[in-house]
Input
Amino acid sequence: MSLRLSTVILPYRRWHDGARATWQQAEELGFHAAYTYDHLSWRTFRDGPWFGAVPTLTAAAAVTEQLRLGTLVTSPNFRHPVTLAKDLISLDDVSNGRITLGIGAGGTGFDATALGQDPWSPRERADRFAEFVQLLDTLLTEDGADSVSYEGAFYSASEARNIPGCVQRPRLPFAVAATGPRGLKLAARHGQAWVTTGDPKLFETGTPEQSLQAIRGQVEKLSTACEAQGRDVAELDRILLTGFTPDRPLDSFDAFVDFAGNHAALGFTEIVIHWPIPESDFAADQKIFERIATEAVQQLG
Output
């Protein structure tokens, strides 16, 4: 499978003050997909504008035609499977089957306490994530007259109906973000794709070579998890969300081609780059970014 190039557009701009044009330009540049973060607020953007992922993607679906759309990533921190399933079915309908759900366990950032709860422990996050993904899978797949009722340790559903179901069958694809054994098991069982950002321990002090080796190890663990589930790892797309490794792939066109080639050799099928944001951690030269978007994949052959 040839390498695909996608982008992630942070929802910090008003729709009629640049955001709409950015999503349309992502399609014009030929990106495979454009994603957004599903947070209530995020890191250094907390004290500035930040818009909701579901309304943003709905609006983007209405002004694009071919571009795939999705979240990188949604988590249980402030979502419930029953209400999320209804939103996703609606999104899939508005976009005519162009939605991918990137989904992860979440962390300890602002989302973890925004609803007034104490932050969950790593074990509880993993427990909740497993139950969340399982129930969401059921809710999105069962689209007939039969309702879904479920009583778990963390989530419940009582006669939830999701007629008519997703446009994509049997449901829209899950891209599961995971590096630990429990998350990789969920990716192997429920995912149509796997997502990684690399090894966070190497972001500030590691080298690109160390990062590549760490990601190679993650890919091997994914293969092991798929084997344990009786699944061919080749069935899963492998997505690398850039911006969180020691590499600087957007510094130049050649830097990106080298970076992408190294990771494609590990079996990655999709690389996601952040749309440039001036005066932020995602600052980049817009002209280099656009050249990467239009020429880099062809350069890789």
Remarks:
- Helices lie at 15-28, 53-63, 81-94, 122-141, 181-190, 208-228, 253-264, 286-300.
- The first strand starts at residue 4 and ends at 8.
- The two ends are 11 Å apart (CA to CA).
